[in-house]
Amino acid sequence: LIRGYGAPLGSSVALADGIPLVAIPAKLAFAKIQSQLQYLGAWLLVAHVLQAVAAWLLLRRLLADHVQRVLGTLLFLLMPAFCDRWGHVALSAHGLLLLAFALYVAPSSRRLLRLWVLLVVGTALIHPYLAAMVLAIAGAWLVREVIVTRAMAWWRAAAVAGLCAGGLLVAWWISGMFVYGWGANELVDGYGLYSLNLNALFNPAGRSRFLKPLPYLDGAQWEGFAYLGLGVLGTWLLAACLLAARRGWWTSARRHWPLLVVVVGCLLFALSNEVAWNDHTVV
After folding, report:
1. How would you class 195 by CB atoms within 10 Å of its CB: exposed for 0-12, middle for 13-18, buried for 19 or more?
2. Which helix (H) or strand (E) holds 277?
3. 186-195 contacts at long range (C-beta below 8 A, 24 or more positions apart)
4. CA 152, CA 109: separation in Å to the nearest integer?
5. Is the peptide bond before 8 cis (omega within 30 degrees of 0)?
């Protein structure tokens, strides 16, 4: 709890984007030391290392060639959406999402169950937006394991889901996410203002040497910046052509329908209740 910030109501480490995973241990260790110690620069370093390590762990499951893995890891480090998040330090830990995808494609084991719980709880102590997405990917994995591959009993999946959800709520309570009470969300606005434009994947918003920036709605749609980069856009086009020429790809892909549902659901949520194309409202 931080009583003097946002007075007279006060605030908390979680609501001030203080990265509770670091702030709480730091406060326990240095509470009596009067200094200007801060950890934001160190956290950005950790976020970059995490992005590289998580990308390597993910690509290790997908690519056999070491050179391809290195190039893929560098690509994830240079993603415009990742580089653009440096100004929002807590949200810069995109590597947590890559770790979730790496666990999704990892072989099933009891150790994997513990890693999922640890990842969900750890992410809850960093930022709630990232925690929501990691929890959704974990849910997709559980549904796949129970319904599609039948590699896990439903009761075991329910236990893992309960541990993840319970651990997340405890982590949020410890870090002060609920200091305003459960009814606080009724006073919060911004949905439909902070959103994703339909042009987001190919709108460089001034971050490209080759493509011109496209307009978006007035307000804060710049928060939905998700430009892929010209190279990745070209790679997507090439991949789509190769996939269309490959027979039987749907048979191997449909076992991941739970993840597809999660990705599409997150996309629709990001578009919000005011869907825009450039600077025009579509619906």
Report:
1. buried
2. strand 276-277
3. 190/220, 191/272, 191/273, 192/272, 192/273, 192/274, 193/219, 193/220, 193/221, 193/272, 194/219, 194/220, 194/221, 194/223, 194/224, 194/272, 195/221, 195/223, 195/224, 195/270, 195/271, 195/272, 195/274, 195/276
4. 10
5. yes
Positions in the chain whose pLDDT score sits under 70: 184-185, 187
What residues contact 199, with CB distance under 8 A and at least 6 apart? 214, 216, 277, 278
Q: Which two tokens stand for residue 43?
A: 């956290």
The pTM assigned to this predicted structure is: 0.91
Question: Which residue type, as a one-letter code, is found at position 226?
Answer: A
Whole-number mean pLDDT of the chain? 91
Task: Quick: pLDDT tens for 7-62.
Answer: 777 899 999 889 999 999 988 888 777 777 789 999 999 999 999 999 999 999 88
pLDDT tens per residue across span 72-92 = 999 999 999 999 888 889 999
